[in-house]
Write a structure and sequence with these properties.
Blueprint (H helix, E strand, L loop, with lengths): L1 E3 L5 E7 L9 E6 L4 H10 L4 E4 L5 E3 L4 E7 L8 E4 L4 E5 L4 H10 L15 H6 L3 E2 L2 E2 L4 E8 L4 E5 L15 E9 L5 H18 L5 E5 L22 H7 L6 E2 L2 E3 L6 E4 L5 H19 L8 E3 L5
Parallel strand pairs: 3-6, 4-6, 5-18
Antiparallel strand pairs: 1-2, 2-3, 7-8, 8-13, 9-10, 11-12, 11-13, 14-17, 15-16, 16-17
Amino acid sequence: MSATVSETIDIIENAPIPTWFRIGGRADRLSRPRDAGELSRVLDAAGGEVRVLGDGANLLVDDDGIDGVVVELSAPAFTDVQIDARAGTIRVGAGAKLPQLIHAATKAGLAGLEVLGGIPATLGGAIVMNAGGAYGQIADVIARVHGIDRAGGRVTLERKDIAFGYRHSGLNHLILTHAELVLPAGDPEQLRRRLLEIMEFKKKSQPMKENSAGCCFKNPTLAGDVEGLGAKGQRVSAGMVIDRSRLKGLAIGGASVSPVHANFIVTAEGASARSVIDLMDEVTRRVKERFGVELEREVVVWKRGGK
């Protein structure tokens, strides 16, 4: 069922929100604008209060669903990829899938994205959370971003004006529409081999075939010296901290801490969004109790009345 906000904007009601957990509620209203102009009109109609749905890879939607308007940038205007291998640049829509972009850049002999192999996301989502891992981060190749602010105004930001940090960009006030990347030249075959190596490592060390949202918690920075973990100011692996808290296999409902990698919560039949939320809270509580370390969620949880 759909209700038309204006002559050119369609809103889908009671829309499913696909996430990598394969569970969770629905959106009261969902819009897939066809271009930036229509996106501005959706923002105006919603009073600027929208959530942006990317690939659903690090997202959990509460069982009761969410209010407001969800925007999905899946139209061709937001997924286009323009590669200039000679200049070492890529202009790409925020709705483009990161894995496909990585393969396209590698094939074109442009280096820097292959280090993000195995990270499921749209480009916009990857930029907003500054996606990365042990091998690099998306911020390393960003030249500038283009987006729309909550009032519907067009915004362009240069790399130097973006507050990139660990899993942070400071761009949550914008809805990204495109980005421009600058990448050094590389040998396509060597880049392909490097990508395959990274993917193979992740397949062996992460539960890639399970329903999960990837890493559940950000790697914490120790507030003080912690015996067995590290020194004050050191950023340590959340997976290691959870593992040393002996929480692998801990389960609530159909959600459990993966025995393969402790920073992954996986879901099975019977799982609900509430069981995942309760398990994340329990892991946080036990790690705090065991080591005095505060874990911060990397998984985004959408609920009615706000995130």
